[in-house]
Amino acid sequence: MTMELDAKLLDILACPQCKGDLEYRKEEPALICHQCKLKYPIRDGFPVMLVEEAIPLET
Questions:
Q1: Average pLDDT estimate for 24-32
Q2: Which of 23, 24, 28, 54 ranks highest by number of CB atoms within 10 Å?
Q3: Statement: residue 6 has pLDDT above 60
Q4: What is the CATH number assigned to the segment(s) 7-56?
Q5: SS3 25
Q6: Other CB atoms closer than 10 Å to residue 27's CB: what's the count?
Q7: pTM for the whole thing?
Q8: Residue 46: is it exposed, middle or buried by C-beta count within 10 angstroms (0-12/13-18/19+)?
Q9: Cα 16 from chain centroid?
Q10: Measuring CA to CA, which residue among 22, 24, 20, 32 is closest to residue 3?
Q11: Hey, where are the domains in the chain?
């Protein structure tokens, strides 16, 4: 089951590493920072915004 993140939450979230914008990918579920090339997982409806937990994007 995929949970939607609240639009207000998405508006205020930023990459913890570069403070840049994030792309929400509901189907994965994850938040993507294209600048840092990192994917922040969403677990049980909560974004895990720790650089140590981020997954490098495949290039």
A1: 95
A2: 54
A3: yes
A4: 2.20.25.10
A5: strand
A6: 6
A7: 0.88
A8: exposed
A9: 10
A10: 24
A11: 7-56
Say if residues 33 and 17 touch (Cβ distance below 8 Å): yes
Please check the confidence at residue 48 and state whether its pLDDT lies above 90: yes
Residues of 3-26 as b/e, b for ≥16 C-beta within 10 angstroms?
A: eebeeeeeeebebbeeeeebebee
Count of CB atoms situated within 10 Å of the CB of 49:
17
Q: Which two tokens stand for residue 19?
A: 């403070």
Neighbouring C-beta atoms of residue 54, cutoff 10 Å: 22
Confidence (pLDDT) at 59: 66
Q: Is the pLDDT of residue 34 over 70?
A: yes
Q: Tell me which amino acid residue 5 is.
A: L
What is the DSSP track for 42-54? EETTEE---GGG-
pLDDT value at residue 43: 94
